[in-house]
Amino acid sequence: MQNHSEIAEFLWKIADLIKDDYDAKDYEDVILPFTLLRRLDCVLFPTRQAVRDAAEKYRTVPENTRDALLMRAAGQRFYNTSEYSLDELIKRPADIAQNFSAYLAGFSTNVKDILYNFSGGEEKGLSPIYETLVRKRLILKITHSFAEADLSIETVDNHGMGTIFEYLIRKFKEASNEAAGQFYTPRDIIRLMVKLMFEPDRAKLAKESLVGIYDPACGTGGMLTIAKEHLLAAVNPGLEVYIYGQELNEKTYAICKADMLMKGEDPENIKRENTLSHDLLPGKQFNYMLSNPPFGKDWKNIRDEIEAEHKKGAAGRYAPGLPDVGDGAMLFLLHKLSKMAPQGSKIGLIFNGSPLFNGDAGSGPSNIRRHILENDWLDAIVALPNDLFYNTGIATYIWLINNRKPLARRGKVQLINATGPDFSTSLRRNLGKKRVEISEEQSAAVLAIYQAFEANGLSKIFATTDFGYSKVCVERPLRLRYDLTAEQRRLLSLDAAVLKLKDERAGQLAGALDALEQQAPWNNDTLFFAALDKALPWKLTAGLTKIIRAVLGVRDENAEPVLDGDGQPVPDSELRDYENVPLKEDIDVYFQREVLPHVPDAWMDRGKDKIGYEISFTRYFYEYMPLRSTEEIGAELMALDEETENLLREIVRG
Fold this sequence. Notes:
By secondary structure, this protein is of the alpha/beta class.
């Protein structure tokens, strides 16, 4: 084997040994952990005996101190104290099952954590996997095959090992496309987002010595590793880049942590837990943050924790508001905002369309958008082509957030429409629902549009306030007519409040209404109740007045408005409406121009005003397509009819 591609293909083909006993979606359960084991074996080979000697020497030393001493002996962030390696296990085939258990038990705690999670959190660590191989009589074949792979540092450096591991992950995800998108973001999308985040900072990063990158939904770690690779290869080779991540899914976390271990990263920077409910990197701030949080995933199971965090206000992560419980994507955004450094942080994340506009004024999603825009943190949003992901073809967007925007971009937001055919290339073979990819040239074209920061057909520049509006309540008066029909009066007599009237009051009310019926219809609520009061020997209560109005009143736009005790019109809830008035516009002027000409009796209840923010991406890039004329459509139909007739003649002649 001469290169990384050949090594990766060799490891991938080991899956042929288990294809009769495992489903394709389960190949990775064997191949990925064994690839890790083989790499660890090869890396630890030069110091293997030194570690065994140190383990014997320090066997009575406290665990934490002993762990550090053994890592020092290994010269790595991990070690194995057992007397076995994959090479040594196959020398004693009869005892391989028993010895394999001892081999796994000798690894350092961080490796055991990875193996534990490879098994989906099984308490026995990797035992279920190798025990299944034993039961299927495959353990010796698999161990022997992996022992043939030279994954030593001399043959494969850390970067190369990461490339091989990425190749295997991609192959397995392609073999189970429906699940791929949940934990695996296509690399073409990541590369575009990485360029949009880092390239504008090239001059700044050239002077930096240390940078931290964070992904709170890191999946297999692709965003973190590609981000670091780009920084070191294309921006500043001298940078010291620290990467951090957190992931909920056990197996995906294991893949990510294993990848970090094989690339020489600090595996302890990768945490396993639900980021939204349990932040395992509290208090830390990061220069760059990027992620692809799951779309449409609810947070019902952690509702108590999320709402408790929200109640902390500014001391918590979710002070601005909470999104709908059916979709927690915006919670990841709030979480990232809480980790921005005052001296400057940039955030990139992938969303579907919902976070742009879901939620009415005053709702959680709207308040989150308001928080970001009023702080002038939203830098740009890029609309991506459809069909980029493995498990969905829906519209997706890259959000770019920066709490230290360049002077020229302050107070502004750039929207880029990269959905057209010029920004994607069709795949020769679909990968699940992924039908297109973004080439390097197309990625560079999007970056050029972003950096140009000019308004044109593909790029729109808005003020942050352009997305805000005041939701104003518009009221119209309640207008009631009283016909006092026999059926209406009968229904009133059966109302519970009337039946409870004491003495002769129910009969007196009925008699008064009978008398007023002679003058019906009554088109003036004030005059009607004045007459009713006069006809009764007792005073109507407010409660009874409300019931009479509800039972006997009929809405009539020609009737006089109903007035309250202060002589002000009573609003009709059925006619209540709302107007979204742009923040830049005077509300009174808008009301005079847009509302009163159509409903002169309307007024605004300004006590119900709410501020909202939404980003109507489609509307901003909408291009009117004039309808075809009836003559053109008719001519096309005639041509189709003639074509059909010709085809029928050919069939008959044939």
